[in-house]
Design a protein that fits this description.
globular, single chain, seven-stranded antiparallel β-sheet, five-stranded mixed β-sheet, 185 residues, mainly beta
Amino acid sequence: MKKIVTSLGLFIACLAYSQGGVLIVNNYSTAYDFHGNIQAANTSGGCYPMVNSYNPDMVVVPADSHEGNGQNLEYKNYRDQFGGSLYPMTQWYVYLSASNQMPRAWNHLSLTPGGTISLNTKWVGSKFQMYHKGTNTPEIFFNGNLGEDIAPCITNQAYITTPYGDAEWFTLTSGGENYSYIQIY
């Protein structure tokens, strides 16, 4: 009985860590659309597995058209974002090592909650570029690697400030759930 309770407790703990929580991108900028490659990685020793957005490569969160309400993207996990996000990801690029990478569909077993990749990664950031609202013209001075710094794997900054706007990364915990935020102002 003790082994069953211990095993069940470990399983529940793994599910709680599954995907490392929710990723939310809030774009409060009224002048720029957010274009970003989003990333998740193993943060408990070693760089791998890593997961990057793949199809589309860059998620796009349009500029705020309502003066302060913001436009947002929310990914609860790799799988459920497909049916529950305004900006669904059809494929993720999974890195098992520096020499072993492959695209995986949003519903691949390893990416589902409780799957091997999902259990061993959490959201860590975005390599982003801001574009002038509604165009394909980048603002070349408003970009960067935003998120947690996962040395030596990923070099990110928690806060980026430019004359064109600011971007920040932070994580909050509520009710045992992690919420990682990318905020664009």
